[in-house]
Amino acid sequence: MEKRGVRFLVPNEYGHLIQDVLNTIDIERYFWHIDSDEIYISNDNEGIIDNLFSRDKKNNILSGKKFKKLISENIYSTIFGEFKAFTKSSEVTEIDTFEDFIKSKCEIVLLIVDSIYYDIYCKDVNTILSIYESAVQSGYDNVEFIDEKDSRTRLLVW
């Protein structure tokens, strides 16, 4: 059985969920292409402030350093998002399907839907295994491997 990634459910709450689910990955090693995101920063005194990435994206791409800073230093609520990790910004291409992913220079795809559904696709099986173990240890629900029987036909949230 070919492992393509990991799928699980997270709590619907404010926090550092993207940082938490990617904690076994060297986030700064990549350029992150961010598309179709709705992730809100929270301020306990004022409620929702802004979209987490709205002011910092340049052509929908963030350096790993900037991406890590945003997901680790802010409290936020994830509604949906598409995140694709490339080793060089010049290699960023559109990825719609798993076949596009395999042919591309993209190493990781994180898809978030309806606040709680997280799918993470990776080319490296050791990364898949470490994400799986971390998700189980974090107590996330319905943790499972994504394999070639995956019903998802597109690596998009919309």
Lay out the secondary structure:
Blueprint: E1 3-9, H1 17-21, E2 31-43, E3 47-51, E4 61-63, H2 64-73, E5 76-86, H3 98-103, E6 106-113, E7 117-122, H4 125-137, E8 141-147
Antiparallel strand pairs: 1-7, 1-8, 2-3, 2-4, 2-5, 5-6, 6-7
Task: Characterize the structure shown.
With 158 residues, the chain is an alpha+beta fold. It has one domain (3-147). Helices cover 22% and strands 38% of the residues. The protein contains four helices and eight strands. It has helices at 17-21, 64-73, 98-103, 125-137, and strands at residues 3-9, 31-43, 47-51, 61-63, 76-86, 106-113, 117-122, 141-147. Strands 1, 2, 3, 4, 5, 6, 7 and 8 form an eight-stranded antiparallel sheet that branches.
User: What would you report as the Rg, rounded to the nearest angstrom?
Assistant: 15 Å
Please give the domain count.
1
Q: Please summarize the sheet with the most strands.
A: 8 strands, antiparallel
What percent of the residues sit in helical stretches (DSSP H or I)?
Answer: 10-25%
Number of strands: 8
Query: End-to-end distance, in Å?
Result: 28 Å
Average pLDDT, all residues: 90
Number of helices: 4
**SSE run:** EHEEEHEHEEHE
- Poorly predicted tracts of residues: none
Proportion of strand residues: 35-45%
**Secondary-structure class:** alpha+beta
Shape: globular
Name its key features.
158 residues; alpha+beta; eight-stranded antiparallel sheet; 4 helices; 38% strand; globular
What's the quick description here?
This protein is an alpha+beta fold. The chain has helices spanning 17-21, 64-73, 98-103, 125-137, and strands at 3-9, 31-43, 47-51, 61-63, 76-86, 106-113, 117-122, 141-147.
